[in-house]
Amino acid sequence: MFTITKDFQFSASHQLTQLPHDHQCARLHGHNYTVQLELRCATDELTEPGFVRDYGELSDFKKWIDSELDHRHLNEVIHDRNPSAENMAQWMFSIWSERVPELSAVRVSETPKTWAEFRP
User: Fold this and answer.
1) CA 71, CA 65: separation in Å to the nearest integer?
2) Which of 79, 90, 115, 118 is least enclosed, having the fewest CB within 10 Å?
3) What is the DSSP secondary structure assignment for residue 113, as one 8-state letter?
4) Looking at residues 67-83, what average pLDDT do you find?
């Protein structure tokens, strides 16, 4: 198997409403997020040039992040779940797995030391 990853960044606010009112994440706050897409394929599925997928073909994901998530309040964008990093990873995977069939995992980082991953 081959695996490739690509990182994308955006800044946004959120509020995790299902926490106790005195929890720091229950307050409105923001992060400089990093999203990492992981794509995977078998050796015999590489493209003719030898790629899992050309990184340039992920430009639509970057455009989507810029238009839908960057400098937004995520509670107003992600309507069906609390916008935790874990829920965001699963939400992004559900949207993009049909467009990018090689997608094997989505990771979301809120800080340089923390990551959440969704891998079906």
Assistant:
1) 10
2) 79
3) T
4) 95
